[in-house]
Design a protein that fits this description.
single chain; transcription; Jelly Rolls; sequence-specific DNA binding; DNA-binding transcription factor activity; alpha+beta
Length: 290
């Protein structure tokens, strides 16, 4: 029987909001993840067998993994079996983003379509577990500068994980085109997940994003195409399709509500857009998930 992956108990919430950080040992008996917006970044070390679900894709993992959760990317997790684990939750404010720490959160570990799950060998597991144990001990200490020390521990875990990734995957903000593309992609992702059918997307076109970024739409388009190889409109369309699939599979909203939430004035427009991009009608995706 599948069990839900343990997450922080409800009494963690007030402490998390107050301090912006919490490290703990994973408890599989507590409530499981739901498919919705998380309020915190999460890094967890777990040994066992799991299935992670992201919108229209899933990852099945075994052995020991290091998982990176972004508060803007919804996911759920099923625990097939588990022996032990640690986790830490933290906010951007707690990390006190500098240019250096911001680049860590822009790494493939936290990006949509990146590499949020890494498999560890026994030596790597022992090394990372030691860092978690230090964080847990430090958060209960009276040391005046413990928050700074904990930030260093978080950075240490991220750096250890990045060393397992090919260096060519790292985003290097070397020029204006790269910077504007990174900001566009971040702004695009911040609109998701859609949680209220009565609050439709505000930014739906390349011109909408250009206006928000205070640049000419042609400059935005050329920058995004230069850096990613894909037009701005393709990124927007792909993300809307991804969210549409998630809403069809994980909510009971009717298709008209989903269409409106994603910025379409009429369900017919949404149906045509979805079929053009996927080759299927929305109703067939929902039927397949039942």
């Amino acid at each position: 029987m599948n069990k839900s992956l343990g997450t922080h108990p409800s009494d963690f919430n007030s402490e998390l909001k107050l301090k912006g950080f919490k490290a703990y040992q994973v408890d599989v008996k507590s409530g499981g993840h739901s498919y919705n917006r998380k309020d915190f970044y999460k890094i967890s070390l777990n040994t066992g067998s799991y299935i992670f679900h992201y919108a229209d894709r899933s990852f099945e993992t075994q052995e020991t993994i290091l998982f990176f959760g972004n508060p803007r990317i919804p996911y759920s997790c099923e625990v097939i079996s588990q022996t032990d684990g640690y986790a830490c939750l933290f906010t951007e404010d707690f990390l006190q983003l500098s240019e250096r720490s911001e680049s860590l959160l822009q790494s493939p570990l936290f990006k949509l379509g990146g590499t949020p799950i890494l498999q560890l060998n026994p030596e790597q597991k022992a090394s990372i577990a030691t860092i978690y144990q230090k964080m847990m001990a430090e958060q209960d200490s009276d040391y005046a500068y413990k928050d700074e020390l904990i930030r260093n521990y978080i950075g240490q875990i991220i750096h250890e994980a990045l060393k397992m990734q090919p260096s060519e995957n790292y985003p290097e903000h070397k020029n204006a085109a790269v910077r504007i593309t990174a900001v566009f992609l971040e702004l695009l992702e911040r609109q998701f997940p859609v949680e209220d059918p009565n609050r439709p997307l505000e930014l739906k076109t390349a011109k909408d994003f250009a206006n928000q970024l205070a640049v000419h739409v042609n400059h935005l388009n050329s920058s995004v195409k230069e850096v990613t190889g894909k037009p701005t409109t393709a990124h927007i369309a792909d993300r809307i399709i991804s969210e549409a699939k998630a809403l069809l599979q994980h909510t009971d909203w009717n298709i008209a509500d989903i269409a409106y939430a994603l910025g379409f004035d009429y369900p017919t427009y949404f149906n045509n857009f979805f079929k053009k991009k996927t080759g299927h009608i929305p109703k067939s995706i929902r039927a397949a998930s039942l």
